[in-house]
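#help-structures

NK: newbie question. if I give both the sequence and a SMILES, will the prediction place the ligand too? trying with pyridoxal-5'-phosphate
OV: yes, paste both and it writes out the complex. here, I ran yours:
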Amino acid sequence: MDYISTRGQDGPLGFEQALLSGLARDGGLYLPVEWPRFSSDEIAAMRGLSYADLAGRIMAPFCDGEISAAELSAMAADAYAAFDHPAIAPLVQLNDNIHILELFHGPTIAFKDYAMQFLARAFDRALAKMNQHAVILGATSGDTGSAALEAFQGRKSVDVFILFPDGRVSPVQQRQMTSVIADGAFAVSVKGDFDDCQALVKTLFNDHQFRDAVNLSAVNSINWARLMPQIVYYFSSALALGAPEQKVAFSVPTGNFGNVFAGYAAVQMGLPIERLIVASNQNDILPRFFEAGTMAREAVVPSLSPSMDIQVSSNFERLLFELLGRDGSRTASVMHDFATTGQFSLNNDVMAGAHRLFSAYRLDDAGTIAEIATTAKNDGMVLDPHSAVGLSAARRAHADGTVPTDIPIISLACAHPAKFETAVETATGEKPVLPPHMADLMTRPEQMQTVAADADAVKALVLARKRSA
Ligand SMILES: *Cc1c(COP(=O)(O)O)cnc(C)c1O
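OV: that's the protein plus ligand as structure tokens.
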């Protein structure tokens, strides 16, 4: 399978090249040159496969000519071996027509593990083959960084440096990062906020001399290989409810539009999905866009669901490219307008295309607390704040007729409630308990680097500590 850029000036290139570059050289994002498509019979034949074998089947067309289905299954089996549920992504029935897809059974108890554990193996395989060494540099507000350090620790071909804002991540998130004590794994506390961390990463990626010298790579959700493994659980959960004969809808708590774009990919691959519900917190740039056809950036307002405190959804560019008929120069010009003016608008024809599949809902912090409380009381299920934003949207989509009540909605639970214990305790009066494999987390030894919010300081740290090829 070949990959092209959403801005039309890079590619085609193969899967492993797209994997290692992350961001296209023209500033765009990579997408497969065409969507592989499964027939109904092929989808029906996926029933009963193990999660790892299903992963191999779904991802094989995207890696055609480079990695076989059998090899992908083996990589997935290895990636998910330490997950604490045999189903990997279990589906739990909430009521007559809503099901919760639990995506918190990996080592850092948020859905980022599903992609990151696979990505680490894919990186290792590609770099080893080319006898190369890479440095992964990322900024995190919590979940991505812990998933990346956990997944890449101890891999000889890669050193990973994760910048996080000093004192601004939750205690559980911080300990998950700092308790990874392994060669080549560095949790870096930056004296600044998340925007400072992101700006530092950007500065170092734009320093081409440094970038080439250390073979810098990115694992944030703009990397196509982050999205690919996420398509698998859309298939596994829909199959569990009777796909392809039974249609389903999904409600997806959304920040960077990565997870929900994986749902879009599943639709393109032939999975019968009635509707994708985009669920946002009070940072509601996406609901405002789906209502009015204008994407307009505002300031980020901190919320109880911090992993969705985002105004610029970086993966939205992929949907934009699709909605514009895969016209790279039009996509580039819209993204240029957005960068310079902070907004862009799409015409009614293009928006009609978006509305055929997507609906969007927002929920503020008070609503989030109320949703956690009522779901705990009436349904006996304790959700984290991100998952509650998604479930509230699912309930409203049935209630207002957006999704017919005879179509089940699968609502994605993106983190374990213990990862966001303060909000959950406020709502339910009880502190959620960490799963057994993490019970001792808060007493594990810590190791971290501390730097000023200064590009030269981060550069010096990377050069001093990185291992070589
Ligand atoms: C990352 C994250 C999200 C947002 O996912 P996107 O792919 O960025 O839309 C939602 N919830 C949790 C718990 C997350 O960690």
